[in-house]
Amino acid sequence: MHPPSATFLGGLRVYKIVLLGEGGVGKSALTMQFVSHCYVDYHDPTIEDAYQRQAVIDGESGLLDILDTAGQQEFTAMREQYMRSGEGFVIMYSITDRQSFLEAAQAKRQIERVRRAEVIPMVLVANKMDLESKREVTTEEGQELAAQFDCPFFETSAALRHCVDDVFHTLIRQIRTKERLGMKLAQKDKKLRHRASTIVQNFFRRQKKRV
Ligand SMILES: Nc1nc2c(ncn2[C@@H]2O[C@H](COP(=O)(O)OP(=O)(O)OP(=O)(O)O)[C@@H](O)[C@H]2O)c(=O)[nH]1
Ligand SMILES: [Mg+2]
What we know:
Blueprint: E1 7-9, E2 12-21, H1 27-36, E3 48-57, E4 60-69, H2 79-85, E5 88-94, H3 98-115, E6 122-127, H4 139-149, E7 153-155, H5 164-210
Parallel strand pairs: 2-4, 2-5, 5-6, 6-7
Antiparallel strand pairs: 1-2, 3-4
The chain binds guanosine-5'-triphosphate (GTP) and magnesium ion (MG).
Guanosine-5'-triphosphate binds next to helix 1.
């Protein structure tokens, strides 16, 4: 069972995923590795690219609709718009760039502002873990930030295709968990409303009998 907001294409549930992070952290490289199993070793600043890939996660098929966004300031005007439409977010920084780590926290705050009280599925990703000698952000710092975000954390290497699938699969699991919890709550709410209306109806029936 899916919530009313869920979209489908050819019978497949479409998951709208958005990648956020400073320019050059490896959003496009990670996306290309996930979608096409190839590594792009040059930086061609993205304006906005969309990719789709079908995947079976925990025995359930889905279509991942991935929005690879611009990290560079001059292209970030659309940010709030895709923050509104995303169902799940990959917030990314590079372990070799402390500034990108600080920006990750900023991106999370912006999502919260745009989406208010909603629980948003997300994953924090520290990319370029193959560049250990250039590391500026420790694993512990990443873990601490993820704990603050209350979300899973991965150190990845798009270059080595390390943990790439885990990032996307974990995010889909998060979206599904949110969906199931939401449906459960909605069903509970429906049951409660039904019970309340039965109580009210019975009350008026009793009143009528007395009159
Ligand atoms: N060593 C190493 N280099 C990486 C890795 N991921 C990306 N790169 C390199 O980092 C540079 C920037 O990668 P992109 O994927 O273009 O970065 P981006 O986040 O999409 O940048 P914008 O589109 O400008 O926001 C490229 O030269 C990549 O080859 C990685 O895991 N390890
Ligand atoms: Mg890019």
